[in-house]
Amino acid sequence: MLLHHYALSPFSEKIRLMLGYQQQSWSSFVVAPLPPRPVTDALTGGYRRIPILQQGADVLCDSKLIAHDLSRRLQAPELDYWQLNQEQQQLADYLDSEFLFVALNSCPPLKLLGLLKQSLSVWGLARFMWDRLGIAKEAKEGGSKGGYRRYRQQLQSLEQQLQQPFLYGDSPNYVDFCLYPSLWFVMAKAEQPLPESLPKLTAWFKRMQAFGHGNIQELSRGEVARLAQEHTPKTLVQTDNHPMLDKPVSVGPLDYARDQTQGTLVAVTAHRWVIKQKTERFGDVHIHFPNTGYALRDADGQVIPDTDALEVSQ
After folding, report:
1. Cβ neighbours of residue 58 under 8 Å, at least 6 residues apart?
2. 222 or 117: which leads in pLDDT
3. 3-state DSSP call for residue 251?
4. N or C: which end of the chain has fewer CB within 10 A?
5. What is the rounded distance in angstroms from the CA atom of residue 181 to the CA atom of residue 188?
6. What was the pLDDT predicted at 112?
7. Residue limits of the GST C-terminal domain (predicted)?
8. Is residue 297 pLDDT above 90, yes or no?
9. Contact 219, 226 (CB under 8 A)
10. Between 139 and 30, residue with greater pLDDT
11. 314 falls in which pLDDT band (50, 70, 90)?
């Protein structure tokens, strides 16, 4: 397992913590907070969000799909979004979106600048701030009074819910790992403790933090490139019940950073779309996207409704 990530990425921390929870050994490729990222960009065809999980010449995009893959690979269904009930899914979606944006915006600006300056030049810092301003406008979350009010109310609600070590019992599930990145950034990175009125939530955070990140092996840019060059994409189960199979499509997020990734649709499953790109550097690459929170479009840019299909072989 090779994770493309960077230190301050909340969604990367979500996956790093899952790997620690499962006591996994994994390969790491640290990328820049902003494009260009030469090797990663060549593998993803323009998809710009981090993290991605690389498995040879297969690339998994979005932390939700990465967690789904880990849950199957590690036989850990508690890490799978699609194993949650509807109420839990709604909470996970909120924690991954508005809640996270508000948490980040609650951090003192000077503290944020200090963190960013550790890994960015002055020019890089300016680019990062301008980029994130654009993302905030696209997302339309994180700055409203209503957003802050819901954030505070959610913290109180979670405090009341914690009658056991984790949100839904004696062990964590996917929702715990959605909550953690926001509080990790506020408490561990921005060094802002939670109010004293939230002792259970503070204790929960320490329990989650103790999972760590597992055993990590850092890879160089050349090693990552060779991993893709020396592999071919996994064999896919034949799927013949989607009208766009073997046709040119594009896939992109619905909320923010909506850059489209283009390719040929080669598989449609219960939870993902897989598109193939032919690259000069790596040959064929399969790029996997979740079908939740993303749109599949035809060559004319028209959204294609999702249909039932078979599952990708693992």
Report:
1. 233, 234, 285, 286, 288
2. 222
3. strand
4. C
5. 10
6. 86
7. 81-237
8. yes
9. no
10. 30
11. very low
* Rounded Cα distance, 285 and 103, in Å: 36
Asked whether residue 311 carries a pLDDT value surpassing 60, the answer given is no
- Side chain identity at 228, as an amino acid letter? A
61 and 52 in contact (C-beta within 8 Å)?
yes
> How many residues appear in the chain?
314
| DSSP codes of every residue in 147-165 | HHHHHHHHHHHHHHH-SSS
How large is the C-alpha radius of gyration of the chain? 19
Residue 308 CB: number of other CB atoms within 10 A? Answer: 9
Contact assessment for residue 42 and residue 137, using Cβ atoms and an 8 Å cutoff: no
**Arithmetic mean of pLDDT, 276-302:** 96
Q: Residue 64 region, left (φ>0) first, then alpha (ψ -120 to 50), else beta?
A: alpha
283-290 sheet: strands from edge to edge: 215-218, 25-30, 2-5, 52-55, 58-61, 283-290, 272-279, 261-268, 248-253, 294-297
Sorted by where each starts, the structural domains of the chain and their CATH numbers stand as 2-76+217-297 (3.40.30.110), 85-209 (1.20.1050.10)
Q: pLDDT per residue over 188-203, tens digit each?
A: 999 999 999 999 999 9
